[in-house]
Amino acid sequence: MRYDQFAIQDAELFIELEAADLLDPVFQLPFTYSTTCLLWEGLDGPSQCAIEPYRVAGRLEIVQLSHQDQLRAAVLEAQADGLTLAECSVYQLAHANNWPMLALCNSLCRRCYVPPVQLYNMSWLVKQLVARRHMTRPEAISASRRLSQLNPRLRVQYNQLEVELKSPLIAPVA
Distance between CA 142 and CA 123 in Å, rounded? Predict the structure, then answer.
């Protein structure tokens, strides 16, 4: 079976998936994920340990960028307001492979990435869990509430997700 490939753009996404008990469901989706060594090294030891089984199973690849891509990431970081070198390195990975990126929220990609890459956020990922029957709507609503408590900065995004999941008129996108 062919999996869709995504580049994971920020370490916080891993941290929040773990804290919201969503790692196992997300890694059961028919996707594979990649991130860069720079981003991986930014994760603390316990987070790396929680994610390690998925790396060993081949669902997450940690990629070392080429020297040229590292330089491009450094140039982007110098031009970007608030993006880290690790986040810029994942953009380079996604751009070089024509992969979409998964980020906690859309704001990380809207600022300066040229050319733009396709970006999906945590809300999209939770909707995928429902659409692909890895989670029921009530479970997804509960997960959305946990995510909202974990990250008050994204409370509006997660409250909107909860509204969408409760609406019978809005079906999660497959």
Answer: 13
Task: Tell me the mean pLDDT in the region 110-120.
Answer: 72
H/E run at residue 58: none
- Does the pTM of the predicted model rise above 0.90? no
Instruction: Single out the residue of 56, 64, 63, 8 nearest to residue 31, CA to CA.
Output: 8
pLDDT for residue 169: 61
Residues 6+ apart with CB under 8 A from 163: none
Residue whose C-alpha is closest to residue 76's, from 58, 59, 60, 94? 94
Mean of all residue pLDDT scores within the chain: 89
Name the amino acid, one letter, at 165: L
Q: What is the CATH number of domain 1-174?
A: 3.40.50.1010
CB 158 within 8 A of CB 147: yes
3-state DSSP: the chain helix, strand, coil percent, rounded to 5? Answer: 60, 10, 30
Q: How many CB atoms lie within 10 A of CB 80?
A: 18
Identify residue 42 by its one-letter amino acid code: G
CA 61 to chain centre: 14
